[in-house]
Amino acid sequence: MPDFLQRRRLARILDRSADRLADVQKPEKGWIATMRLALGMSAEQVARRKGVSRNAVYQAERSEIDGAVSLKQMEKIAQAMGGKFVYAIVPDAPIEQLKHKQAMLRAHALAKLEPEFANWSKDEQQDWLDDAAAQQVHDMPSDFWDSNSLGL
Predict the structure, then answer these.
(1) How many helices (H) and strands (E) does the chain have?
(2) Domain range for 45
(3) pLDDT tens digit string along 82-93?
(4) Which of 56, 59, 105, 141 could disulfide-link 52, Cβ–Cβ 3.0 to 4.6 Å?
(5) Any domain includes 70
(6) pTM of the model
């Protein structure tokens, strides 16, 4: 498991990537067909450059739409068309927000184990939840992301 500083560096990388790629939408026809058509290349021309049949190019285009194309295949076809294939997983929100959300879920589960929690004022409850969540993020217990830990 990476240490705190390494996790922060990795989080910054992902957050910056998410910012840069926020507006990227997969084209309706998929990346392969869109690139091929934008270049004015036929499937047969791509196939010759890749060393496969025209049907293999069409099949790759269909497989991409279906989500079944391999990363290696995308890379080779991109190269055949003079491009490069970029693969990324980017977070839906900043990493710290994702961790905080999970920590709050855990804090709420922990609150159910606190006998007097329901009798506290709303401010005391919120302070306790905030502190418990902060402690969860700080400690990062090994079961932090387990959905079934603490009855989540």
Answers:
(1) 7, 0
(2) 22-80
(3) 999 999 999 999
(4) 56
(5) yes
(6) 0.80
